[in-house]
Amino acid sequence: MDKIYEQAMLFDFYGELLTEHQRSVYADAVYHDLSLREIAEERGISRQGVHDMIRRCDRILQEYESKLHLVERFARAKKVVEEIGRLTEDMAGMGEERAVPAEIGGPVREDAIKMHEKLLVIRRLARELLKEL
Question: Which pTM was predicted?
């Protein structure tokens, strides 16, 4: 995982557990991409102090993740929902290609249409979940 992405994810999940001062400094470094010098000048602390605080916050956030695994579970859930979306898209496409002509088939055609409609609902739900994640 890319370091900045990892820091952002950890901060999203556990940032509220940091002190207000730690949250503010960490957000400036990770989200606002400010340099250590810029943060230090803005807060009236040393560049080394900012560096140490960011490292301390990294360690704290990593410790929360090692105990709770929320980011890991989130990533797994996101992959599963993406796969569901891909599978339903493939299956919906197959249903359209293999549709039974109306004159052939009565109940078979109706079942195929119902299955296709359900796949579209599943695909819509997967997309909604991905937006939430």
Answer: 0.70
Tokens 């490292």 — which residue? 55
Q: What is the pLDDT along the chain (133 residues), one digit of tens a residue?
A: 588 899 999 999 999 999 999 999 999 999 999 999 999 999 999 999 999 999 999 999 999 999 999 999 998 888 888 888 787 777 766 655 555 455 555 566 777 777 778 888 888 888 887 777 6
Distance CA 37, CA 7 (A): 20
